Amino acid sequence: MSTLTVDIAVEDAYHNVRDDSNEANWAVFAYADDVGSGDANTVVVKASGDDGLEGLKGALVERERAYGFLRVISGDEMSARPKFVFIAWVPDGTPIMKKAKVSTDKAFVKEVVRDFAVELLANDLDDLEEEVIMKEVRRAGGASYGSSST
Q1: Which of 49, 54, 56, 34 lies closest to 105 in space, CA to CA?
Q2: If we measure between CA atoms, which residue out of 101, 110, 96, 115 comes closest to residue 3?
Q3: What is the H or E stretch that residue 99 is in?
């Protein structure tokens, strides 16, 4: 059994999403064999962009396992700040052996994609609705302070 290799470009894309001075706010990392650029034991950068959740969702494909990293802004008018979401994408219809491999490989990817507030497992694009993601981010963030109207 071989271990997973995470391409060095994955780390660069991860840092670009985390960097406040960079416009990139998402990246998708996929298995090289799924995107036609290598072997099944290598994760590479599939895509990245600055168009938020919709851009990330557009890079996810049926039957193609992937990992996503997304920057969102959370908080209220007094404490808005970036938060990060790690997504394991294992769509319905993924062959069972490839699906099982994600559960062990995810640990290798998380050695590179280390800092995030929320981790999600998604198997359908409906699992990645903005409302659902932001609810999880708020729950992970704890207290909410805002101006009171009373």
Answers
A1: 34
A2: 101
A3: helix 96-109
